Every structure is written in structure tokens, then in C-alpha cells.
Amino acid sequence: MYHGIGDVAQSVHPYYETNTSPAMFARHMEFLKESGYTSVGLEEAVKYSANGESGSKLVVITFDDGFRDFYSTAFPILRQHGFIATVFIPTGLLSDQRSQWKCADLMTWSEVRELHSCGVRFGSHTVSHPELETLDEKQIDEEVGQSKKTLEDKLGVPIKTFAYPYAFPEHNKPFARRLAEILESHGYELGVSTIIGRARNTDNPFFLPRLPVNTWDDLALFQAKLQGGYDWLHFPQRVYKTLQYLVRPHTNLHVPQAV
Questions:
Q1: Intervals of the chain under pLDDT 50
Q2: Going by C-beta distance under 8 Å and a sequence separation of 6 or more, which residues neighbour residue 29?
Q3: Is the dihedral of CA 192, 197, 202, 203 positive or negative?
Q4: pLDDT of the residue at 245
Q5: Distance in angstroms (rounded) separating the CA atoms of residues 223 and 226
Q6: CA gap 11, 17 in Å, rounded
Q7: For residue 232, what pLDDT is reported?
Q8: Distance separating alpha carbons of residues 13 and 21, to the nearest angstrom
Q9: Is residue 126 within 8 Å of 144, Cβ to Cβ?
Q10: Residue 97: which residues within 8 A CB-CB, separation 6 or more?
Q11: What whole-number distance in Å separates Cα of residue 148 and Cα of residue 159?
């Protein structure tokens, strides 16, 4: 799970950093290539896993938010190493003209179409990148439904994948269950989340875990994550989120009581 590819670190703590320098990103891709990894789309990865085929050398390289530095910096590095990637787009933030979000340039729709013609996969990241857990059901339906329709109109292909914006509330099981139903009703088949870890065929296909990667990941840490050395963090992550959920007021839970 990558976000921005640029030289400026954005966070005060490595755990929360979402930026990766071009030099470090290139080192990551070189490591994958030299180690015999193959990049695939989300659909292919899940198919391999469901068929019981070994996926130890398969990676799904994902980018969230649609920043322009994917077009200008990340994609040339990916193409140099023969890799593909999936980019999750918050459709309402992009425009035919250059726009910005979080003080960074976003891609234009013409750049998205150009990348798509070169084999880059695209998925939905909602319309406006909200914290979906705080919305009512009608708003959630609009965010995931309209973003899918916009991408399909812009690219002319079915959009079947979704990335949850912000931290995924796996502790809120009624919400997660209802969101999965909404995604399925709109024709989504797969999705990814911020749950930490490598994906397995026992995971919920709409909220697959990912390995967060940023500029602080030297090759030793990057390799450790790929080999499962980071998976254990899912347990403290889940405990922390559950405790937060238990102590805060639940005024934003808009899931019907029957769920």
C-alpha cells in the first residue's frame, strides 16, 4: 500500500508516514524484481489463492488517492521493472484540469485514461474520501455507487475493486457487514483495507489486508514485511481500534437495528 511518491516526508512518526521517496520506491521495485516477484492485479491474486496455488512470489502493488506523482514518478519506475499496479481513485477530487488535495497535485482524467491504456488498473476510493463509518446508509451508497459509475464512464470498463478510505473499522462488525452488502449490490467483487498483513483466502474479499509501505522501509524491513514479519501487528492494531470503539459514543452508527 503506497500513497505519494515524493521526497518530502509528511509525518512525524514512521508508522504514520504515507510518502515514499522516488529513490526508495525504485529500490523496492529493484528488490522485487531481483527476488523473482511478479506483480498481478487483485483479481488474479485472489484467483491464485482460491485455487490453492502458491502466491509467495506474487505481489499486488496498490496506490491510494490518485496523486500526480504516480503518473510522473511511480509509473515510469514500475514500467522499467515490468510491474503493474492498481490505483484507487476518489473520483470527486479529480478533474479534467489539475486539482489538489492535501497540498499535493492529483492526476487529471486524461492522465488516468493514458495510464489505463498502458495497463494500470483502477479501482474506486469513494467520491470524496470520507470516513464512511460516520455517514448514513444513503450517503455510503452514493459514495461507493457514484464513484464506480464515474470510473466506468471515464474508462469504459467494469470497475470491480474498492479501497476503504482511512482506517478500516473492523471492530464495528455490523457496519462492516452492511458495507460489504452495499458494495456487492453495486457490483464490486473485491476490496482492500488498512488492516495490516498479507492477504489470505480466508480474509473477507471486500476488506483484504495490505502491507503499508513508506520512505522509512529500508530493504531489510521491506523484505520482512513481504515474508510475514509485519503480520503480527494486526493483533495490537485490532485491540487498539476495539478499545477506541468501546470508549467512544456511538452516535455515528447509522446501520439499521435489524442488521
A1: 251-259
A2: 77, 78, 80, 81, 83
A3: negative
A4: 62
A5: 5
A6: 5
A7: 85
A8: 16
A9: yes
A10: 108
A11: 6
